[in-house]
């Protein structure tokens, strides 16, 4: 991380899916800039490891598919650290299910786990964010729906829906000083992916990308930081693809 963003010092930032990977890297990046970070995840053990890496990070275990728990999460976080000035909606789950075999429950759970809580959290934090002088929402989508891998219809729907949500938030909240943008990562070498990396996987990834280097969680975190910063003050309603040039 090369840029310094003094505006984050003392500001309250919430990052979901922070127990590992992109979420952990993002929480640590904001903490390094002096922000007070509420790190959210259902994985309490991984969340504790994230919080142990920086004193400025407060762990908050929450099932984001439970709207009552989500509402309580926001209330408790704001009572502890004040208005949330940056919301990073990173949490999500990919699960391959053949479209002909998935149940209604499968479909609804995938949308709840990958899309619904982005909107619900935005609705919860927006009033406080606006009253505090504005802020930024960064939603994590994916390039998966752009490339149309098989047996991921519900996941594709949710990740594509994040772009529509982002543009809607940008229009509806812009007058309150709130910007909303999205990031669509490509193949990122998170802890989960690292265990599956082979020489063939690396070679295939390098061949697909214009830039033949593996994408790290910190690469996505740097983009999140920039989009949330004053350096991007006139950017809203956009989706930045960070995939080394595949799409």
TrEMBL record:
CDD domains: SDR_c (cd05233). The keyword Oxidoreductase applies. It holds the Pfam family adh_short_C2. Keywords: Oxidoreductase. It comes from the Bacteria. The keyword Oxidoreductase applies. GO terms for molecular function: oxidoreductase activity. Belongs to the short-chain dehydrogenases/reductases (SDR) family. PANTHER family: DEHYDROGENASES, SHORT CHAIN, ESTRADIOL 17-BETA-DEHYDROGENASE 8-RELATED. This is NADP-dependent 3-hydroxy acid dehydrogenase YdfG.
